[in-house]
Design brief:
Length: about 90
């Protein structure tokens, strides 16, 4: 369920609003146990996603490092290689 929660700090280009929102949505889904909330819980669910996204945005923007920014394409290739090694390549 948490496949969209990925490291968002120290990438070039920086994390987008959509990436932060997606990670926040997955986090709230995991905590609540709802993939899609009922109408009765929809407002609370959306408010939680907004609050988590705001906190995540502040965190990512306030962190500092001396490490070089990571390249998204290189990190994605590494993830694909790990997946292929773990699960085998799809043919």
């Amino acid at each position: 369920m948490c496949r969209n929660i990925k490291t968002l700090f120290n990438f070039e280009p920086p994390a987008t609003e959509l990436e932060i929102r997606d990670a926040s949505l997955q986090f709230v889904r995991k905590l609540s146990g709802f993939a899609v909330p009922s109408k009765a819980n929809e407002a609370a669910f959306e408010r939680a996603v907004d609050e988590v996204a705001a906190s995540a945005r502040r965190l990512v923007q306030s962190l500092v490092t001396t490490a070089e920014p990571r390249d998204r394409e290189i990190e994605a290739a590494k993830a694909r290689a790990r997946s292929a090694a773990r699960f085998g390549s799809a043919r």
